[in-house]
Design brief:
The complex is a heterodimer of chains A (71) and B (138). With 71 residues, chain A is mainly α. Chain A contains 3 helices and no strands. In chain A, helix 1 crosses helix 2, helix 1 crosses helix 3 and helix 2 packs across helix 3. The two termini of chain A are 18 Å apart. At the A-B interface, helix 1 and helix 3 of A face helix 1 of B.
Chain lengths: 71, 138
């Protein structure tokens, strides 16, 4: 994964915040940067798509962490 | 004055000879004209016969060409039928292949949708937990 664990945790926080309140433009840009780092084709997609992709990336990261812990 | 009998006789004989001569000349002229007409008619008949021969030859050539055209047309129709069958066979094959690909694609999309939905739900829960935890820490 190109993202560092700290970046993923930050992304988790931003995504959680996006479910409850709206993100500031700076936070939206930060979240977009993280998602684009994982998926460069998401450069010009809407913020809604960025959130969906971010949630999938976090889910995959969880699965990865679980598999790594059971290995 | 009295005309002598010898003069009358000589005149009559002369007249008869003159008539006979005229008759001979007329007959000869008529015969010559008849020969000319016959020659003219023969020449015309020969020309007509030659024209008919030419026409027959042309007609025969036309018949041969028509036969050739019919043969080509039949060949073309046969090829066209075969091409039509080939096209439909290929279309059927392509349709079957496309349907197979489409069903595989639908299956892949369903798998991807399910996977992404599961991952999204897991990510949603984890991110909400992370947000609440960090907000609680603050």
């Amino acid at each position: 994964m190109p993202l560092l664990p700290a970046q993923l945790e930050r992304m988790e926080y931003l995504l959680g915040k996006a479910q409850h309140t709206s993100l500031t433009p700076a936070e939206q840009d930060e979240l977009r940067r993280y998602v684009v780092a994982e998926q460069p084709e998401a450069q010009d997609v809407t913020f809604e798509t960025i959130v969906t992709l971010g949630l999938i990336i976090v889910g995959a990261y969880l699965l990865y962490r679980y598999l790594e812990s059971t290995a | 004055m009295e005309i002598p009998d010898q003069w009358v006789g000589a005149l009559l004989v002369g007249l008869v000879l003159l008539v006979l001569g005229q008759f001979l000349l007329s007959y000869r002229a008529f015969y010559q004209h008849k020969e000319e007409v016959r020659g003219f008619v023969d020449a015309k008949a020969e020309t007509i016969a030659r024209s008919i021969d030419n026409w027959n030859i042309k007609n025969e050539n036309c018949s041969i060409r028509i036969d050739t055209i019919y043969a080509r047309l039949e060949s073309f129709e046969s090829k066209q039928d075969q091409a039509g069958k080939d096209i439909w066979n290929r279309t059927d094959q392509m349709e079957r292949r496309l349907q197979d690909n489409l069903s595989r694609l639908k299956k892949d999309i369903l798998v991807l949708q399910t996977t992404s939905e599961l991952l999204r739900k897991a990510g949603l829960r984890e991110s909400e937990d992370a947000y609440k935890k960090q907000r609680g820490d603050e």
